[in-house]
Amino acid sequence: MRIAVQNKLLVLMLVCGVSFSQTTNTVVKAKIEIEKVGENLKISGIAENLSNLAQDFSYKLSIIYKRSNSENQSNSIQEGLVCIKANKTQKVSDALINLKKEDEVIVLLLFYNEKKQLIGKDRVVLNDAKSEKLQILDLDGFETKGIVSNETKTKLGKDFYDRYFNRYNDEKINSSKIVVVGEELSFGRNTNITIVIGNEVIYEFMARPDDEFMSEIVDNSIYATILYFKNLENQEKYLIQY
């Protein structure tokens, strides 16, 4: 009986965790708007305050370029803080891009509260490769897979990101969750690199310009990534089972 009660409590905790992660766009709604300007596309990040109180939050507009003829990708990120009055809509970010036929461009707009919890999100894919006409696809309800976002700041951080991203593809991890490789400058010339999935730091280390060290770190970080997704999969199977 005691074991059964513990199992029920565990299931309840897991269900609560899943439910919480899905409560986005309920207080502040994120929306991406696309406008054609000459040969370019204007991307706007819009925030709508759905509550009766002013809301303070941070935003991140990521534009991820994926080449159709290779596995390379590059990122452009805008981020900042914003305060929106009750029941108001406000543009928080703008970007102008040139979409080439061989590119697939994924646009992500994310809002975070002061506790770094995700409270708003929108995703759009722009792809001119499969049609003569521009396709603008809203991905609400669909999964964007295999995204590793580069938020490093130094050449050393970029080197680690490239190695990690290539191994991520080699291992065919291809998760629907966004993996963020971040970097924070520390004392002196030290730099701290983190791998974040959701709101959880799954691996971090102090970087140093040593090829053997970096190779070992890439192995360890990929192992940590695979282990994280396997544990997540086991949790989901447990929920389905019970």
TrEMBL record:
Pfam family, one: CsgE
Origin: domain of life: Bacteria
Gene3D superfamilies: 2.60.40.2420
Signal peptide positions on this chain: 1-21
Species name: Flavobacterium xinjiangense
Record-given protein name: Curli production assembly/transport component CsgE
Entry keyword set: Signal
Job description of the protein: May be involved in the biogenesis of curli organelles.
